[in-house]
Amino acid sequence: MTHPFKPRNFPELSPGEAAAYVQNGMTIGFSGFTPAGAAKAIPKAIAARAREEHAAGREFKIGVVTGASTGDSLDGELARADAISWRTPYQSNGALRKSINEGRTHFFDMHLSVLPQNIRYGFLGKFHLAVVEACDVTADGQIVLTTSVGAAPTFCQEADKILIELNEFHPVGLRGIHDIYEPYDPPIRLPIPMTTAHDRIGSRSVRVDPSKIIGIVRTNLPDEVAEFKEPDATTLQIGENVATFLAAELRAGRIPKQFLPIQSGVGNIANAVLGAMGSHPEIPPFQLFSEVVQDSVIGLMEKGDITFASGTSLTLSPPVLSQVYANLDYFKDRIVLRPQEISNNPEIVRRLGIISINTAIEIDIFGNVNSTHLMGNDLMNGIGGSGDFTRNAFISIFTCPSIAKGGDISTIVPLVSHMDHSEHSVQVVITEQGIADLRGKDPTERAEEIIAHCVHPDYRDELDAYLHGVIAGHTPQSLQMAFEFHQRFLATGTMRR
Ligand code: 0RQ
C-alpha cells in the first residue's frame, strides 16, 4: 500500500539525529506492547550512542518505560549496550533479563493497567521524552499508532517532547482500529463508559500539542514477532481441559448461555486453549477481552468462533499480519486496540464478567500462584496483565504443565517460592493431568483437590504425604519442609527424591 504521508511541518531526522536528543539519566516512554508497535530504529541508535559514550569513558544510561515487553531492537539492543538504568513494567528479552538478574538494571514489576495512572500521578518521576511508532501524523498533532496502543498515549501526554518513528510498513488504513481514551483521575473519577467488549469510547488517534514533536524518523520495519511453535500433546491436553471445564460451567448454568468474554494470556498454552474452545461443540462463538490479540485469534475469527476481539496489541507473526492487512476493513469491524489502562482495567473486567486464563510458573497446593520468578530469585518476565484480570475475573483460571525441565521440576509445590496471585484470587487450576476447582474450599480441601487432579503422578505421593504429615492449623504448612522441593532441585538438579 502506498503511503501518502508528507512530513508537513515536522523535521525529518535520521535515527542518529533523533538519538542525539537523548541525554544520560533521561526517562523515556517508548511505544510497544509486545514487539507490536514497538519503537525500533531510535532505540537502536540510542544503543549505538551509549556504546560510543561508554567507549569515551562517559556514563550513559536511561530509564526505559514501555507498555509491556518489546522487540529485540529496543530491549535487546539497549540491554546489550548496558544502557538501561531502570525498567518497568514488563519484559521478556534474554539480554535484559540477564542484566536485571545480575543487578545492572533496576526492574520493578507492575500491574500493566496501573502504569499510565502512576505516570500521571507523578509516581515515576519526570518523563523527558516519548518515542512512538506511528503510521500517520497530521500537522495539528494527531498521531495514528500502529499495531499496539499500550501506554503510548500517556507517554505522549506526559513527556516534554516526542519523537515519532513513522513506519511505512504499516498502512495508514489502520486509522480507526484504535480507541484512545484516558480516564479521569481522582478525586473525581467518573465511570469508564463501557458496558460491552465492543464499545468504542474514545478517539481514533492520540492528540498532542504539535509543538512537542521534535521530528520524525521514517522507517519501513516489520514488528519483531516470532512465529508460534506447534502445540505439543501437553499443551493440547491443557487446552482440552480448559474447554471441558468451561463447557461444564455453561451446562450447569453458572456461565450465561450467550457466554462471557475471554481473557487469555500469550504463548502456546493460550493458543491451545483458544483452539480447543473454538472447536468445542457446546461453547458458542465468543468475544475476546484481553491484552494481546495473537495469531490463533485471527484464524478463529475467520471461522466465526471468535466474534470480536478487544486488546491493546495486535501481536501477529508476519504472515498473519499480512493476512489482516489484505482484509483490513473486515478486521477493523471486529478488532479494537485500546490503551492498556482500559484493556486491562479492573472496573471493566469486573463489569463485563471476564473469564481469565493465565499461565503460571508454579502453583502451590493451596492455590497461590507464582507467575514471575524462578526458584524464588531470578525474574522470568513479570506479572504483566495477569493480576489485572485474575483478581477481578468472573472466573479466574491458571494453567501450567504439571512438570517442567523434563520432569525434574514439579510445577505444583508445597509453597510457592514467590507469590504473585494469592489463594483468594485463584479459583481454578488446570494442568494436563486435570482440573482442580478451588471455589468454596478451605486450604486442606484445596490441597486435596490440586494433588488429586493436577499433580504429576511422579510427585503425587510425596505431596500427599507432605499435606497429611503436617500438624495442621487452618493451613497445613511446615515451615521446615515447605521449600524442600526447591532446595533439592538447587542441590541436585531435580526435585525427584
Ligand atoms: O524454560 O525455556 O529454559 O525450558 O520457565 O516456560 O514453557 O516457555 O512457558 O512461555 O508459557 O511462559 C509464566 C513465564 C510461562 C508466562 C510464563 C521454565 C520452563 C521454561 C518458561 P526453558 P515456558 P510460557 C497477561 C499474561 C506472566 C505474565 C502473564 C508469563 C520457562 O506466561 O510470563 O501472565 N506470565 N501475562 O522450563 C523453574 C518452574 C518452572 C520453570 C517452567 N516451576 N521452575 N523453571 N519453567 N516452570 C495476559 C494477557 O492477556 C496477555
Automatic annotation (TrEMBL):
Protein origin, superkingdom: Bacteria
Gene Ontology annotations of biological process type: acetate metabolic process; acetyl-CoA metabolic process
The protein's Enzyme Commission number: 3.1.2.1
Occurrences of domain Acetyl-CoA hydrolase/transferase C-terminal (ranges): 323-466
Short name of any one Pfam family annotated for the protein: AcetylCoA_hydro
Residues that, per the record, bind CoA: 361, 381, 385, 405
Single GO molecular function: acetate CoA-transferase activity
Keyword Heme: no
Top-level enzyme category: hydrolase
Keyword Lyase in record: no
Positions annotated as active site in the UniProt record: 291 (5-glutamyl coenzyme a thioester intermediate)
Keywords recorded for this protein, A-Z: Hydrolase
Transmembrane segments: none
InterPro entries, sorted: AcetylCoA_hyd_C, AcetylCoA_hyd_C_sf, ActCoA_hydro, ActCoA_hydro_N, NagB/RpiA_transferase-like, Succinate_CoA_transferase
Coiled-coil stretches: none
SUPFAM superfamilies for the chain: NagB/RpiA/CoA transferase-like (SSF100950)
Residue ranges constituting the Acetyl-CoA hydrolase/transferase N-terminal domain according to the UniProt record: 14-217
NCBIfam families in the record: YgfH_subfam (TIGR03458)
Family indicated by similarity: Belongs to the acetyl-CoA hydrolase/transferase family.
Name of the protein described by the UniProt record: Acetyl-CoA hydrolase
Organism: Haloferula luteola
Origin organism lineage: Bacteria, Pseudomonadati, Verrucomicrobiota, Verrucomicrobiia, Verrucomicrobiales
